Amino acid sequence: MARFSRIIGTGGYLPEKVLTNAELERSIDTTDAWITERTGIRQRHIAAEGEFTVDLAEAASRQALEAAGLSSVDLIVVATTTPDRVFPSTACLLQSRLDIHGGPAFDVQAVCAGFIYALSVADHFIKAGTANTALVVGAETFSRIIDWTDRDTCVLFGDGAGAVVLRADDGPGILSTHLHADGDYADLLHVPKGVSTNLASVQAGTAYVEMSGREVFRMAVQKLGELVDEALQANGLERGDIDRLVPHQANIRIITATAKKLRMPMDRVVLTVAEHGNTSAASIPLALDVAVKRGDIKDGDRLLLEGFGGGFTWGGALVEWRS
Ligand code: UT7
Question: Does the active-site annotation cover 45?
Fold first, then answer.
């Protein structure tokens, strides 16, 4: 009998502090009009001092587990670019917080495509019969690797966490996942220093995101367009067969281009970019959680989740929703 992973619970958490475009206008040379027109972002959430990635992950995970009616899972995968420690992984820290013990727990690092990577890994564990349940989390304190004087990047990002619980089922569920990377583009979107290359800059808190925005934009639109074709083809579906797009929330113009490729009206696209900004690995599960809680997603709906990020990495998951 076929074996699928089904999403049986979602959760999301955003830090309390909101940073609006108007506030950014006061600290850097930018305008609310520029940020809104070019990105669609109006505000973002910023973690409080002493609030860390695992705290955000825990809050989102508790909600997802409660929604799923589970207190434990066989597997924990956390997608993050901003782990609390070099090691152990955020997934191990989270496992302890949740009082779950013994099963595998590890982090996945694929920046803004991280949640899709984590979801795909967990889906493969479940399909292979290695796990029956899994907690998949995207959690970031991206504000900690942003140069708040660099207007090219600081207006874009925010903090947050989203989580889903998967359970093995004999019907869909996740229909397919598609992962890609091309490391030749590493320098177009990166934090140029790390522990191995310059620990001092990391310790001094001066290892910041650098981005060639225009090139990233162009590649994101191109690769996400190709991904739409790939996901449809893999499942023998036509463009009109997808009911909802749940995109990574980097820029409304990238999202609009992908929706156009799907010939999907924007009212079928889950949008949180205005309120959340780009929360990297957290943005897709956060958007999914918002849509689920709003009651926008109905049984039988086919969802395309997709994201593009540093690496470059990109990927998608086609999901047939059953609550
Ligand atoms: O999560 C995945 C990774 N990230 C992304 O997907 C982001 C991809 N890139 C983008 O979303 C867009 O490229 C940006 C939003 C980053 C920039 O938008 P753009 O339309 O590509 O603008 P641009 O970089 O071509 O800059 C246009 C102008 C420049 O001025 P000049 O050279 O034309 O005089 C910039 O200096 O806008 C200027 N600019 C700003 N002005 C006001 C750049 N940042 C700002 C700012 N406020 N914050």
Answer: no
Under 8 Å between Cβ of 307 and 283: yes
State whether the beta carbon of 212 lies less than 6 angstroms from ligand 1. no
Q: Are residue 50 and residue 89 in the same domain, yes or no? A: yes
Q: Checking DSSP bridges between strand 133-141 and strand 244-247, what pairing results, if any? A: unpaired
Average pLDDT per consecutive 10 residues, the chain (323 residues; last block may be shorter): 94 98 98 98 98 98 98 98 97 98 98 98 97 98 97 98 98 96 98 89 86 98 97 96 98 97 95 98 98 97 98 98 91
Q: Is 233 exposed, middle or buried (0-12, 13-18, 19+ CB in 10 A)?
A: exposed
Domain at 237, CATH number: 3.40.47.10
Ligand 1 atom at minimal distance to the Cα of residue 112: 1
Report the C-alpha gap between 243 and 94 in whole angstroms: 33
Q: Quote the domain boundaries for residue 14.
A: 4-170
Q: Give the containing element (helix H, strand E) for 197.
A: helix 195-203
Annotated catalytic residue 198 = no
DSSP 149: T
Is 278 among the catalytic positions? yes
**pTM for this prediction:** 0.97
Q: How many angstroms is it from 178 CA to the middle of ligand 1?
A: 28
| Structural domains of the chain, count | 2
How distant, in Å, are the alpha carbons of 6, 14, 117, 152, 242 from that of 236? 20, 37, 22, 41, 12
Q: Do 33 and 131 fall within a single domain?
A: yes
Q: Which of these is catalytic: 21, 45, 92, 112?
A: 112
